[in-house]
Structure formats: C-alpha cells, structure tokens
Amino acid sequence: MRALIFGLLAGISLAALWYFLAPQAVSSSASPASEPVKAMTQVSPGGAEAADFSWQIRTGKISGPEQIELPAGESVSFSVSSDDADEIHLHGYEQVLMVPANGESILTLTLEHSGRFELESHRLHRVLSVLIVEPR
Questions:
Q1: Which SUPFAM superfamilies has this protein been placed in (predicted)?
Q2: Closest Cα partner for 131 from 97, 90, 85?
Q3: Could you tell me if 55 and 128 are in contact, meaning their C-beta atoms sit under 8 angstroms apart?
Q4: Strand partners, 96
Q5: Which of 57, 59, 65, 67 is nearest to 104 (CA)?
Q6: Beta strands in the chain, from DSSP E residues, in sequence order
Q7: Looking at the domain covering 27-134, what would its CATH class be?
Q8: Torsion angle of C-alpha atoms 44, 119, 39, 115, degrees rounded to 10
Q9: What is the pTM of this model?
C-alpha cells in the first residue's frame, strides 16, 4: 500500500514539475509581433541584394526578430549591439560574432545550408532568434 501511495505522489510531483518547467509551445494563432520575419532586401554598393537584420541587447533584454525565414543562397547580414561584451554564435554555420561592450558587430554570410539554426548569446545563454533556411 505504501508503495502505491509513494508511486502516486511521485507521479503527481513529476507532472507538476513538467507543467511548470516545460518550454512554452508556440501557438498557431501567433500575434503579429511573434510571426516569422520575412527578409527585407536592399541593394548593396556592389549590386548584390542582401537581407539585413539587427538585434539590441540592453540590461539583459533582447529586441529584434525572434524568427527569420530565408531561402538558401541568400546573402544576409546580422547586426548585434550590446551594453555588455558578448559572444554571439550562429549554430549550424559555426560562425561567432564578438560584440564589444557598448558596441556593435556585423556578421555577413551566404546561407548555404538549409534547416533551422539558432542565433545564441553565450553571455545570456539565450536564443536571440531562430533562422529558418528553406531549400531552393
């Protein structure tokens, strides 16, 4: 009988932990602020089109697009400014962007790999944005 009671308590405890600590799911009725950002292109001085995105990190708060969708082969520029020195990592592309305190750094690359990639702040241990690269 004790084993049954302890088993029930353990199950209830695990369910409660999962409920309170599980990551939040993205709802299908997303508000305009949380919808994926489609690239705005501009012509660079060399004549090639490039998509530009930027993030700001101030007192631990991140502002900028939470999700970006681009086709493979697109040229893209990521700009990050921060009030503290940080290391930004684009997982999957293994690109690192060193951002000085009260400064800005820019990463420019051509999206060669399709998939889902995270742009992460190593200082905050948080994801700035999710990059979705669609195959050609």
A1: Cupredoxins
A2: 90
A3: yes
A4: 89
A5: 57
A6: 37-38, 41-43, 49-58, 61-63, 67-71, 75-82, 86-90, 95-99, 103-110, 115-121, 126-134
A7: mainly beta
A8: 110
A9: 0.64
User: Hey, where are the domains in the chain?
Assistant: 27-134
Reading the block at residue 93, the tokens are 């592309």
pLDDT per residue over 61-106, tens digit each?
Answer: 999 999 999 999 999 999 999 999 999 999 999 999 999 999 999 9
Cα 109 from chain centre: 17
Joined together, the tokens standing for residue 17 give: 């932990």
What are the tens digits of pLDDT across the range 105-132? Answer: 999 999 999 999 999 999 999 999 999 9
